[in-house]
Protein: Glycosyltransferase
Organism: Urochloa decumbens
Amino acid sequence: MRPSPSVASSGDTAAAAPRMYFIPFPTPGHALPMSDLARLFASRGADATLVLTRANAARLGGPVSRAAAAGLRIRIHALTLPAEAAGLTGGHESADDLPNRELARPFAVAVDLLAPLFADLLRSRPADAVVFDGVLPWAATAAPELGIPRYAFTGTGCFALSVQRALLLHAPQDGVASDTEPFLVPGLPDAVRLTKSRLAEATLPGADSREFLNRMFAVERATAGWVVNSFADLEEKYIKHYERATGKPVFAVGPVCLVNGDGDDTLERGRGGEAAAAAEAARVLGWLDKKPERSVVYVCFGSLTRFPHEQVSELGMGLADSGANFVWVVGGDDKSAHAPPVLQADVDAAAPGRGLVVRGWAPQVAVLRHKAVGAFVTHCGWGAVTEAAAAGVPVIAWPVFAEQFYNEALVVGLAGTGVAMGAERGYVWGGEAMGGVVVGREAVAERVRGALADEALRRRAGEMGERARRAVEVGGSSYEAVGALLQDVLRPGRRSQ
């Protein structure tokens, strides 16, 4: 459901129109929710500018253009990534477009070189607030002479943030003898246990965690508050915990994907107005229309994961063995060196009429909302977790890297809206391509069958979906959080602080 177009919350003044910039790290997992966030605030009366690289501007332009045509004050400002100055060749302007891990460092340098361009933008067109991606610390300090308040968009939930902060500060992982020995994460509201094999890169042995910790503290000092794509019923204890730990307010305004209605915004999300995207969306949804209710498992590992061919093969055979219907989004495209050799003909031979292969992109929010979908195999990126929660769909969690194992712990261990696929080790991003088989076909088949048949799991996920939708409605926790942030931006003296 779309939030009400009124400014802020029920007690706010409709005349206020704060000018706000939204700037994400250039990759779909960050840019998509930030685009939704910008439209959410525009729908509540803000004058919103979404700052993107040109490649992501092309992908995300459709919903923004439609919102502007409908009368909202929203636009995209496109920046050209200084790729050549960073030694980055190939025209890559989004992290998911990088053909290998080796280009990640020059890409990161190119992203840092956006800092003066963003500062110039702020000076030429000042704003009342900046919502910056938490992994872009330079956005928090650009044009300091203007005194513009900055709010950090965390990119993940408060549970994962709390876990990561505790690991960096207290390093309990250093006190265990092996990668598989469980340890307690200290200082959390719940007893959360992890292993070294399930930690994010910054806390792995040999990582420069001190540099990451310093960056974390720098962002904490610079931000006026945290903007989180989450909602109270999903992780209320951790929203309050993170406020106490950092001393900064948390504005939990999600799930932001619910700003998309049931029309073109949802069908084209992440692919602009491409004719091919519309055709692919129609193909996928038409296939789902022919399947019984809650009979399909949707399989997608986001825009960055690239499994080795052996793991892709085991996954495919497990899906076939499960007896379930499935829509399987395979990473990469036909020209990519990472594109696994999965063809529709292979799936048809192994699971006649039961499987649909999608290469690279699918209308994920629309698929998850479809009545035929009964479970979601996901890497547990936070965007995917919140989209599943919003749709009321159970998760089969298969984390791969970064904070994804922490998200699994929330979904499976605390919220009870998912089950674990059985992955016991993670990777540094890019390393999964050499990781061999982590989950075999038997486990895949068993977990898929079990999740689709688990009525209690389906009920808990459905209840979470209802709570998510209520959160964004007038008077809901997320609706009020949007209003509270707008009031914070507009309060007297804020610009001078």
